[in-house]
Write a structure and sequence with these properties.
heterotrimer; A mainly alpha; B alpha+beta; C mainly alpha; A: mainly alpha; MetI-like fold; 11 helices; disordered C terminus; B: alpha+beta; Rossmann fold; OB fold (Dihydrolipoamide Acetyltransferase, E2P); 2 domains; six-stranded mixed beta sheet; 9 helices; about 25% helix; translocase (chain B); sugar transport (chain B)
């Protein structure tokens, strides 16, 4: 096919425009690409010479920073296990059992979860957690996240399970399986990709979040990395840029690799299609 | 093996009656096909035998046992699903042996039995593969093997061949027929493909809108369809149906329509009155009972509409003055020459007649 | 007779109960509790922390006190600021930019597509704190990348966070969230049969005509979905706090940040709860609208 001059011009201008927008989006992050590898990094853009991993070793030796990562890990894993477990069971019940009013339950859950946002509910969440005596504990963060992420997780998983033919479990039961056997032997392995997606989604959400641990935690020993980074750069005085840049990169690593993993494994472009 | 009995079974979903007051008996060792268009209640009936649906009213027996409220696993049945329902995370051997696993057989026995059945079905070399790694025909056999691995009282099939392409389907059909013949298992087979039902069944239950319209041997259904619905549904191309006006004289039926010469037909006295009250009846002739000749007891005339060569036969369609079409299936090696005006002849013994409501009118020998 | 089901009602209830307990305790109870607290003078510390008094509508009256309503640092100011923020950064910024990107990237060479798409998505998937920190460095007066660029272009460097804090968070949020709209519109465009556009090509349509006459009318549903979702998220977003802490002098204090300050800095839980109730009411309106449209769409698809 031959293109007219006009078409070629429009193609080129499209590409130039798209590339320009891409550059604008990349600009705020270019600094972040270099600073972690520069032993003398400041807030200015500077190509590190030499490239060094020294900043990362500083982070590894900093107990406060490492504890932050560990805390993020504890809270995320705890929340993810709870969300994965409860959402799988609940979504299966919503899809496969005849519990009365399951349609309205799903509708109400969705409604509540979008109405009760973190910013609207921070006061009562704080009050409930303090009433339970859980202020300044990992458990508090884990429970609050589990509750907040569950409605969406259940909804995603229920859709997924609805898309799986019932004949899987039916054939298992005709073959002699009980409901529980059919769930364990047949349904659960078939649902697993859906669970993986939900779990990854929940992990990224908890790992990256700031507000909830910021409100619910007080002691430095429990702070997740997000709160640690914030307090590093927001407090008065010049932040230790070298350490912070490397730390932020390490902290971002799980999120980026999970994104790439999901993208590769499921071609799932709609990562976190419904963000909490 | 066991018999199956339906006693006044009804299944409703809300206001919709999927199956209405169905009663029938299936004898031990029979191969029954439930035949009908989609939504006629055939799959629901099958699923009620399996226990995957509970009847709204009525009872179902397998053998002497009332199984109406029994869980599927307690019914000693096997079932092949339309989509095969092969578990994607288990290999072929594990898939086949799953019924043995849930019944507590040890692993060695399971492997042995799976191998045995797989060999019979010619998939013995695929046991280590996953379902996604084998062809559609092989998947179909795997699901069949899973149904056969555990001896059951009743074998249920839910359109098991509908996902295969035409050639494979014929092959699988022949195989199923052979299998049922050699094992004599009581089978209930759901299909919307009339050819499949004719080929496989010892008896066919034709269903329409939740009711069983006719329950008889394939030949009887073919030769003496109980209603115009059955006449239309069974046979390809279907029976030619033509609305005609009837008169009765001396227990002989006279039929009138434009471009139609029909000899008098002897009929039973009891129907004489019915026809006299309601003279608008339907005449039916199967396409293969028509010949391209005007020299016959009965003749129908029209303009040539289509002449399709099928290889072994020709499908000749004429259009009558009232725009109704008549298709003849003509077996001939000669190239018959058809002019614009065509006359098709047929013998009186091949005529079916239906009253205004579409029910068969029995002729004197029936 | 009990109908057969894959999971009995009893087992189903059992399966459902852990999720029900968690959601009940941390979503549904807070919903009602925040309403209750908004009618009290509960504080974080002091006497009223333990024995809050019922004060009726006092908190709401204080919020809607017209004398101070529009004053910086007051409820009305934050509400209006938030509405402007949503309009500019979500509806205009994210949705429009996302739409343009999705359209452009359909017909650009692969490496441009991969580069631009990756840049937009990375801005979206990185944790919010990292983004906050990156922008903190980006906007630094002395050394930041932005001022380096403006100086290189011969312009005056700006102290952006001090001089134009509102526009900073508008651009910040546009940048942060454009990926969602881009990906949504991307998949919307991809769902259209290519033959539609080939037919238009044969007819000699320009890219803009194809967009306006074919693509846009066909993805109307996606546009509405996108607009409602990003409106809801932007309305509740807390991330700008990580860049500006609501300042300077309350000029970027969105409703969510205002709630946080009232409740956890000024320790007025009752008043913070009242703001929470107002936010929830606005959320409710959006959510009901969204669920209704989603339901209609669902029905249309059947």
């Amino acid at each position: 096919m031959t293109l007219s001059f006009q078409q070629i011009l429009s193609r080129i201008s499209f590409s130039v425009l798209a590339a320009l927008i891409g550059i604008c989006f990349a600009l705020p992050l270019i600094w972040f690409l270099f600073a972690p590898f520069n032993a003398r990094a400041e807030l200015g853009l500077e190509i590190p010479s030499p490239f060094t991993l020294k900043n990362f070793f500083t982070v590894f030796e900093n107990t406060f920073a490492m504890r932050g990562l560990l805390n993020s890990f504890i809270q995320s894993i705890g929340g993810v296990v709870l969300v994965g477990f409860a959402a799988t069971l609940a979504a299966y019940a919503l899809s496969r059992s005849d519990i009365p009013g399951k349609k309205s339950i799903t509708y109400l859950l969705l409604l509540f979860s979008s109405v009760v946002s973190g910013s609207a509910a921070m006061v009562p969440i704080f009050l409930i957690v303090s009433k339970l005596g859980l202020i300044d504990t990992h458990v508090a963060v884990i429970l609050v996240f589990a509750g907040g992420l569950l409605p969406t997780a259940m909804f995603i998983l229920r859709d997924f399970i609805d898309g799986i033919p019932k004949s899987y479990e039916e054939s298992a039961m005709v073959a002699g399986a009980s409901s529980m056997q059919a769930f364990r032997d047949v349904a659960l392995p078939v649902i697993r990709p859906g669970i993986v997606v939900v779990v990854v989604w929940a992990f990224v959400n908890i790992w990256g979040s700031f507000l909830i641990p910021f409100i619910l935690l007080r002691s430095d020993e429990l702070m997740p990395a997000s709160v640690a980074i914030y307090s590093f750069y927001s407090e008065a005085g010049t932040p230790i840029v070298t350490l912070l840049a490397a730390y932020a990169l390490i902290y971002s690593f799980p999120v980026i690799s999970l994104y790439l993993f999901v993208n590769w494994k499921f071609g799932f472009r709609f990562f976190g299609g419904i963000k909490a | 093996m066991a018999s199956i009995s339906f006693q006044n079974v009804t299944k409703s979903f809300g206001d919709f009656n999927a199956v209405s007051n169905a009663s029938f008996e299936i004898n031990d060792g029979e191969f029954i096909c439930l035949l009908g268009p989609s939504g006629c209640g055939k799959t629901t009936s099958l699923r009620m035998i399996a226990g995957l649906e509970t009847p709204t009213s009525g009872r179902i027996y397998i053998g002497d046992k009332d199984v109406t409220g029994l869980h599927p696993r307690d019914r000693k049945i096997s079932m092949v699903f339309q989509d095969y329902a092969l578990y994607p995370h288990m290999n072929i051997s594990q898939n086949i042996a799953y019924p043995l696993k849930v019944r507590g057989e040890n692993e060695a026995t399971r492997g042995e039995r799976a191998q045995e059945v797989a060999d019979v079905l010619k998939i013995g070399h695929l046991l280590d593969r996953l379902p996604a790694q084998i062809s559609g025909g092989q998947q179909q056999r795997t699901s069949l093997a899973r149904a056969l691995v555990n001896p059951s009282q009743v074998y249920l099939f839910d359109e098991p061949l509908s996902n295969l392409d035409a050639k494979l389907r014929l092959e699988a059909r022949g195989f199923l027929h052979h299998l049922q013949h050699s094992m004599g298992m009581t089978s209930v087979y759901v299909t919307h493909d009339q050819a499949e039902a004719m080929a496989l069944a010892t008896r066919v239950a034709v269903m329409d809108q939740g009711r069983i319209v006719q329950f008889a041997t394939p030949m009887e259904i073919y030769r003496k369809p109980a209603t115009t619905f059955v006449a239309n549904f069974v046979g390809n191309p279907p029976m030619n149906l033509l609305p005609v006006e009837a008169m009765v004289e001396d227990n002989r039926l006279k039929v009138k329509a434009d471009g139609l010469d029909v000899a008098d037909i002897p009929m039973q006295r009891s129907f004489a009155e019915a026809v006299a009250n309601n003279p608008n009846i339907t005449l039916g002739v199967r396409p293969e009972h028509l010949r391209a000749t005007a020299e016959a007891e009965n003749v129908v005339r029209g303009k040539l509409f289509a002449n399709e060569n099928m290889g072994a036969e020709k499908l000749v369609t004429i259009e009558r003055p009232d725009a109704a079409r008549f298709t003849a299936r003509i077996f001939t090696d000669d190239d018959i020459i058809l002019s614009e005006d065509v006359a098709l002849g047929f013998s009186s013994q091949h005529i079916s007649l239906f009253d205004t409501d579409g029910n068969r009118l029995a002729l004197d020998d029936e | 007779m009990k109908n057969f089901s894959l999971l009995s009602v009893r087992a189903g209830t059992l399966f459902f109960s852990p999720a029900a307990a968690l959601v009940g305790a941390f979503v549904i109870v807070p919903f009602f509790w925040v309403i209750f607290v908004s009618f009290t003078n509960r504080t974080l510390l002091g006497k009223t922390a333990l024995n809050p008094e019922f004060v009726g509508f006092d908190n709401y009256v204080a919020l809607f006190n017209m004398e101070t309503f529009f004053t910086r640092g007051q409820f009305g100011f934050s509400l209006i600021l938030t509405i402007q923020f949503v309009l500019l950064s979500a509806l205009i910024g994210q949705a429009l930019l996302g739409m343009i990107l999705a359209w452009l990237l359909q017909s650009t060479p692969k490496y441009v597509k991969v580069f631009s798409e990756s840049a937009v998505i990375v801005a979206w998937i990185l944790p919010e704190v990292v983004i906050g920190f990156a922008w903190f460095a980006f906007l630094d007066y002395d050394n930041g990348t932005l001022n380096m660029l403006t100086t290189a272009l011969g312009l005056e460097p700006g102290d952006w966070l001090l001089d134009n804090p509102f526009w900073v968070i508008v651009f910040f949020n546009t940048w942060r969230g454009a990926a969602f709209s881009m990906m949504l519109f991307n998949s919307a465009f991809a769902s259209l049969p290519p033959s539609y556009f080939q037919a238009a090509d044969v007819a000699g349509a320009t890219s803009f005509q194809k967009f306006k006459d074919i693509a846009l009318p066909l993805i109307k549903g996606h546009v509405v979905t996108d607009l409602i979702l990003i409106t809801m998220w932007t309305f509740n977003v807390f991330t700008p706090f990580l860049l500006t802490q609501g300042g300077p002098s309350y000029r970027t204090e969105l409703l969510s940040i205002y709630t946080y300050r009232v409740a956890f800095k000024d320790f007025e839980f009752g008043k913070g709860a009242a703001v929470g109730v107002v936010i929830m009411l606005i959320n409710l309106a959006f959510a009901l609208f969204y669920l209704r449209i989603a339901k209609q769409k669902h029905k249309g698809a059947e």
